[in-house]
Backbone:
């Protein structure tokens, strides 16, 4: 089993009021997501004993809007952005040389998450778990650009969230 290193940066003070136990919840989501993927996928770097690292920024709409415009050319905030190192051309070649496998960065916008949770009538905790699970799956190589990819990724999200006692977020 890989050691998991989750580096959390709270860039928006409102996070601490929104989810008091954010560190524990985030670590649990990271662990459950990696465990589930390891059991259902053959990803070589998950079979190593090297620690896995993620940088998680708990931010706000302003910063996520800026990053979304810069990297995705979309002039609006979004709920979660993931920057996966697995997408870098030299990722696989660098694995034997590194002591820790840096999976990448995730940034979540508090205001968008709060608005969406209200619209969906779900708790901030449950929506946060979904967004973080979604982001981690991106860092592990999952995507949803094509319908079949989206369906596959969503099935993983549903099962991981069920293990966290979070209701299926895709259910009407």
Residues:
């Amino acid at each position: 089993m890989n050691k998991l290193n989750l580096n959390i940066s709270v860039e928006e003070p409102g996070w601490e009021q929104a989810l008091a136990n954010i560190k524990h919840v985030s670590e649990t989501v990271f662990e459950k997501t990696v465990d589930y993927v390891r059991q259902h996928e053959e990803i070589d770097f998950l079979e190593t004993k090297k620690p896995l690292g993620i940088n998680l920024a708990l931010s706000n709409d302003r910063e996520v809007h800026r990053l979304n415009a810069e990297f995705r050319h979309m002039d609006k905030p979004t709920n979660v952005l993931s920057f996966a190192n697995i997408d870098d051309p030299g990722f696989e070649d660098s694995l034997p040389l590194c002591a820790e496998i840096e999976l990448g960065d995730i940034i979540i916008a508090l205001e968008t998450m709060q608005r969406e949770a209200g619209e969906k009538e779900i708790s901030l905790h449950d929506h946060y778990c979904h967004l973080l699970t979604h982001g981690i799956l991106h860092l592990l190589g999952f995507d949803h650009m094509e319908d079949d990819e989206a369906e596959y990724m969503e099935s993983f999200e549903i099962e991981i969230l069920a293990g966290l006692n979070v209701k299926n977020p895709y259910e009407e």
